[in-house]
């Protein structure tokens, strides 16, 4: 008995991409193809894979589209270096809004 493997083209389950936001190259990951979008915003020193690996791996990709990103100065989003001063969270929130556009 002979078995023949068929090649099937399937869309990748996750794709890491880059986008320029205000002169900063931002790395982000898009997983799944579902109608419900989930944005994963890592913690202060977090990264895509450090903070969201379990969610990325177990997400129902037919129901959800997950977008996780490395904020400026973290993970694969370099430069700039990050200043952890009193305005850190305000700048982060403003940058997140720019990233979402």
TrEMBL record:
Q: What InterPro entries does its record include? A: AB_hydrolase_1, AB_hydrolase_fold
The protein's superkingdom reads Eukaryota
Q: What SUPFAM superfamilies would the database entry show?
A: alpha/beta-Hydrolases (SSF53474)
Q: Which GO terms describe its molecular function?
A: serine hydrolase activity
Q: Which residues form the AB hydrolase-1 domain?
A: 37-83
Q: What is the name of the protein in this document? A: (California timema) hypothetical protein
> What does the organism's lineage look like at the top?
Eukaryota, Metazoa, Ecdysozoa, Arthropoda, Hexapoda
